[in-house]
Amino acid sequence: MMTCMRENEPGLARVALQSMVLGGSMFLLAQPIATAQEMGQGEANITARAEVRMSLESGPATSSQKLALIGGVVGGTLEAVRTCYRTVTETNPEVQGRLQLIIDLTGRGGQVEIHRNELNHEQLQRCALRALRGANFEMVRPPGSAFVTLTFNNTAAEGVGRTRALRAEEDHATITRNADGHMTTSGGTEIGEVRFRLEGNERTTEAQIQAVHSALRTAIPTFLDCRRKAARRESPYGEVQIDLVIRRGRAQARTRRSTVADDRGQRCLTRGLQRTRFGNEANGRIRLVVEFRPRPGDIAPPPR
């Protein structure tokens, strides 16, 4: 389905492409839609959810009907744009922003150029531009033009920003000893919706617990994403106890106990920890407790 909307200004039309790509609202497409055509085979393997939203606005003297035709052509390229963004966020999850393009209809199709670039990421810019330039606009008769704004965001970007702030504040972990005399330390997000605690054993050294703590701070975006997954159907609140065996920079993670209702939360944590890189001094056994807490203003459910 395609929804068209004319503005009060003569010659200006806006269109919302409700059945395309990742959108479902007027002008800005914000609600993800999972159709067989749109979903890639590897979608379920992506930890950070990368979203591309599109808005389309006509140029001078371009009717809403012609704008709808342009939108149909542009919509056919957005799976390729999503692939561009997924590829970039696998190694650079903090990348997000907007890219505005202008499409001018010509006798040989459409000419696509960058109008405004707020991405500051050359690889994503080139890839998205290449995808739209590969579209076939010959079905849309000139003259005419349209402005296409692509908005890129993902669930890990916020976590990356928080992680950087925490690194500046927590270059050196504060280590205490529990009732058994074993070393312990903790960390988490700035507002406290995710906390983690490390519990050593009789063989744990200060260098080891510092190294593990440092690696876990880099994994905070993953912890935030796991909290989001745990909240899809149930309350995410609770804690997960995980035994870590770290060798050569990699961890084997095994869940000992979990009070988080949705098993997707704990599975996400163990997979994320197994992908985390640890320094050489982190080698050994250590216990990790990850706790998902309410955000400020959230109403916590009664104890079960």
Would you write up a description of this structure?
There is one protein chain. The chain is an alpha+beta fold. It has helices spanning 64-75, 78-91, 122-133, 156-169, 206-218, 220-230, 263-275, and strands at residues 3-6, 13-16, 50-58, 97-106, 109-117, 145-154, 176-177, 183-188, 194-199, 238-247, 250-258, 284-292. The strands form 2 sheets. It has a 6-stranded antiparallel sheet with strand order 1-2-3-6-4-5. α2 (78-91) packs antiparallel against α3 (122-133), α4 packs across α6 and α6 packs antiparallel against α7. It is elongated, with a radius of gyration of 24 Å. Mean pLDDT is 80; it is low at 1-47.
The string of secondary-structure elements, in order, is EEEHHEEHEHEEEHHEEHE
Q: What is the averaged pLDDT score?
A: 80
Query: CA-to-CA gap between the ends?
Result: 45 Å
Structural class of the helices, strands and pairings?
alpha+beta
SS field, number of helical segments: 7
Low-confidence stretches: 1-47
**Oligomerization:** single chain
What general outline do the C-alpha atoms trace?
A: elongated
Helical proportion?
25-40%
Detail the topology: elements first, then pairings.
Layout (H helix, E strand, L loop, with lengths): L2 E4 L6 E4 L33 E9 L5 H12 L2 H14 L5 E10 L2 E9 L4 H12 L11 E10 L1 H14 L6 E2 L5 E6 L5 E6 L6 H13 L1 H11 L7 E10 L2 E9 L4 H13 L8 E9 L12
Antiparallel strand pairs: 1-2, 2-3, 3-6, 4-5, 4-6, 7-8, 8-9, 9-12, 10-11, 10-12
